[in-house]
Amino acid sequence: DYFEWLGAGRFLVRARGTMGGGGRVVKEIRFGLSEDGATLFLRLDPTGAFSGELLEIALLDEALEPHLPLHHHFQLTPSRSGDLAVGRIAELRLPAPPRGPSGMVGFRLVLREGDREIESIPERGFLLFRVARNDWSA
Which of 38, 58, 137, 138, by CA, is between 20 and 30 Å from 112? Predict the structure, then answer.
């Protein structure tokens, strides 16, 4: 619902031009952590409707050298399970990666149709956000 995501981080995905390989699947991402910092929540708003794309999520783990990502995979078909709900939007719940000294949390999304990558958000690197305080308060 609207109020659940009111204080969440927000990333608007820029549309690609005609020379950039076509349209986007996802137009907006909202993200945030649980109060205890143990869970990462993601919301994906599509440009149309999800049609069975495979979503790969890479979480940046600063505690690992050399900052290796932790991978999670989901099928974006209409469903509702403990960690994924897909309908008009997709909402996901994941264990948050441990934060290193910088307090940064990072993630990257890749959508695939079969073996073909159709979208990567961001196109390079990770979306990063900083946790304001160690006790998770604002």
Answer: 38
Residue with tokens 């000294």: 101
Are 43 and 50 in contact by the 8 Å Cβ rule? The answer is no
pLDDT digit string, tens, across residues 96-137 = 887 767 778 888 999 999 889 999 999 988 898 887 655 544
How many CA atoms within 13 Å lie on the side-chain side of 112?
12
Pairwise CA distance, residues 55 & 119, whole Å: 10
Tens digits of residue pLDDT in 71-102: 788 888 877 776 888 999 999 998 888 776 77
Q: Provide long-range contacts, Cβ within 8 A and 24+ apart, for 62-68.
A: 62/97, 62/98, 62/99, 62/100, 62/101, 62/102, 62/104, 63/97, 63/98, 63/99, 63/100
As a whole number of angstroms, the distance between CA 115 and CA 4 comes to 34
Nearest Cα residue to 121 out of 37, 14, 31, 3: 14
